[in-house]
Specification:
elongated, nine-stranded mixed β-sheet, alpha+beta, 2 domains, 9 strands, 15 helices, 379 residues
Length: 379
Amino acid sequence: MTQDISELLNLPDSSVFQHLQDLEDPRTGWTLQHKFMDIVIIALLAVLSGADDWNAIESYGEAKESWLREFLELPHGIPSHDTFNRVVGCINPEKFAQCFQDWLTATTLLLGAEVIAIDGKTHRGSYDRENKLKALHTVSAWASSHRLLLGQVKVKSKSNEITAIPELLEKMDIKGCIVTIDAMGCQKEIAEQIIQQGGDYVLALKGNQGNLLKAAEQAFATIINPEESHQPYEHYKSVEAGHHRIEIRECWVIPAACIDIAWSSTQTLMMIRSERKCWNKVTNSIRYYISSVPSGVKKIAGAVRSHWGVENQLHWFLDVVFGEDDSRIRKDHGPENFGLLRRMALSLLQKDTSLKKSIRLKRFRAAMDNDYLVSVLLA
């Protein structure tokens, strides 16, 4: 059926539907009234078009039934919201994620990604106190320059991001890329894995590496005052204005050899001092980083700046536009699998350049205009 929909809608072999055909129907021993791929395809199209829960997916299917019948069988009409809930919630999330990963790999193979930001996110609405269910936590990789999700893994229960990040890195080709991670990922094993896979890293340095942070603070203490500095350093200053604020950012980079560090792959240390002036207050911050990039203060500072794209261009959209934090989907694998549907939809909408509108308006247009929806699938 995935080949049929690809042919009928003139989609390429690398389309997301082509990769979803590898999914296995989890309904063993059930009374099967609806085709498995009909359910999955309607769910994805509905989420692309603004549906944020099972009832909305059912409503979308009912409104679009005549169009959907052009490429789906629908032997018993549109499945109910309970059917969508049960079936999608029973899909093996690891296999679902692998289909997603294979599609992302196929679509991003020729793009190249200069900076890959890795960050975690908690799906707050998936927390269920009554059933003692912890909130789902995932770690995502984001290509800032292309505004495209490259991969995602679930943080297993009784674990944390430190164990999930290496698993995510293994799924990606990071050769020639700079990987940026916040302080949680500032671990020697993770740094070495990035180097072994052919990439470079810029890792935030905080209290979890107390001795290293203290050494960096002491090394930079004299750098700020040129009269006291006897060490080579690079310096870069930028000023940005907009949205009723002015931000002054100064960056210093020194060789890692300036301090006693056991991280063999670390080449440089960076300090960023920021001053943000808003209409009613001024805030200051100082942040430290370690990097395997041997030199180039603008390059390293640019990687740090790009890292925030995972928050502003991925997590913000998932929460504000797709309502992920407010979602009350909790049953079985529903939270994780619906989260993958959201990320598939967001990736498709961000790749689309045919409509110069916000993601929210693109979803609204997809709900009304079948031709536009197909153009999104072609993006």
